[in-house]
Write the structure tokens for this entry.
Amino acid sequence: MTIRINPNLCNGCPGRKEGRCERICPGNLIERKQGKAVIEHKSDCWDCAACVKACPMNAIEIYLPEEIGGQGANLLAQVKEDEILWIIKNNSGDDKKYHQAR
Amino acid sequence: MELKEKSTDILIIGGGAAGSFAAVMAKEKAPHLDVTIIEKAHIERSGCLAAGINAINAYLNPGETPESYLEYVKNDSNGLVRDDLVYSIGKGLNRVTEIVEQWGLPIKKDANGNYLARGPRSIKINGEKFKPLLADKVMESNVEVLNRTIATNYIVNEGKVVGCFAFNVREGIFYVIKAGAVICATGGAAGIYRPNNSGNARHKMWYSPFNTGAGYAMGIRAGAEMTTLEMRFVALRVKDVLAPTGSFAFAGAKQLNKDGEEYLKKYDKINTPMRLYATVQEEKNGCGPCYLDLSNISKEKDDELRQSLLGMCPGIVLQWVEQGVESNQLKVEIEGTEPYIVGGHCQAGYWVDIDRKTSLKGLYAAGDVAGGAPKKYVTGAFVEGETAVINAIKSIQQDQKPENIIPSILIEKEYERVIKPLSVKNSTTVEELENRLQEIMEKYAGGKSTYYELEKGKLLEARNHLKNLQSDLEQIKADTYHQLMLAHEVIDRVDVARLLVEHLLHREETRWPGYQTRIDHPLRKKEWLKFINSRLNPCTGEIEILEREYVPRELKKLKGVGEDDD
């Protein structure tokens, strides 16, 4: 499983010693290069979604790799204090949304 | 690498569930002591709780008691557990649950205000931010946390563990950390066997792929006594995304084979290992694949299930949406995972006493790295963390202030060992050696592709191949500090695998079908109702096997007669 970081949305968390995603990845897999977060070791990602939830720019999405039958849909999260809005974008353009209490 | 020396009173290795809870308890009980956690990643989301969890699976709902918990765990483990450890966990489960609720963990309630039971020992929670919540509590408690710090070996001086060596994976600092007492809480080991998935999905696994057995390996290298590594844990999961099956079972799913038969009915004594074993047998006998069938679930229940899975394993919901799976089509294929070595579900780990003290002076263990007490899960890990710190504090108070002078030869030796992969030439990559390890274990030591079956001839092959692999580890190469971390993960896992194979060889019975199926010794035997322990002799480098007696808890206590004095 793995993530995709959209460089156009990532603002590199200016002013922070570590970017939000860079800080919380439990595998130390994300680092900032030239002001943008990048995942150096894509195949080491556990799919925990910690970075997806932590990104204030919603620049990170999870997708299913082709090895387990991924067809291009992706999962994003908008996090509020007591709720997460999960958005699944499908190829058909038919988004699914789920609210989850936290 | 820059060398830095540090000193603390209580050093906790690993800032996951057990380590974080232990640290907070240490500061609560002995605020004057310095408490330090070293954490491989960042404590905010590190360890098994990274994604969150949707239930607490070791809590005693009304009607359950520590005695009934012990009975259940023992039954699920086919009679062999450390009764003393399991019972002591049973006594603490509800107390630690209430503590984390006070810290802010949202636990669902029923109409009467009781915790919402999911089963006799399971309650529902909104646990997506469980780990950040623990981490906040650690920070509030004035615990020192060294993030991105990889423990490499204990400092053992004059027969006592007096700290540990570590390095920072981003800044390249080599630490010599001295401590009055050390608590190991690193978690278990994934990646010893070939993972279920390949390529970019290779880390899509049940257990944390970042738990690579460092705590076991450090103990092994220091000569600690280990127990029951042969009780490997194989989880029954949803194929591909390896989502937990518990949420389906509690939602009322039927477990079916390809012919639509509820196949568990054909098997005796259905417990956790048997659910796995039966599924593997169905596949082996041409009746697979097997499924969890929830096609009669209501739309409302389906939404609830999807929400709860998003806070634990979001990939499965993504897969359903991608494949257009609607509520009335919820039928997921299930399979066994790679075998993991883990003391929280099974019981591989340090041989500890009731105080969670290991066989090495000055060293305690808690959580997945501590042996003898399966099915402790998160709350059991908390209980063990608390027990370990209470006794670590006592030992510090009893001891004379330690001299704490570490002979420089020890420091030099470990520094050379740690940085060696950065300087080797003509060498082998981390990935090559990792693949070799996983292939050896897969083929010869009962991997998934061989239906987890074990036999002496193949295990002897595994022993030889691992020996060769271990000498080739001398050539492991790293170009960055991150790769250096990965290199040590492989080195650690090979140490664990070598001991594991000896355990698998020694148990000449089938105690836990599925987890430990010896096809050359297919029956469970009375005379094997005992623990297999092992120890690497640090002087000779030989692995010694020790057998330890199973001690049943006194019957009168099991029946709940009489009061406990402990």
Summary: Chain B touches chain A through 47 residues (CB under 8 Å). The CA atoms of residues 3 and 174 of chain B lie 5 Å apart. Chain B is about 35% helix and 20% strand.
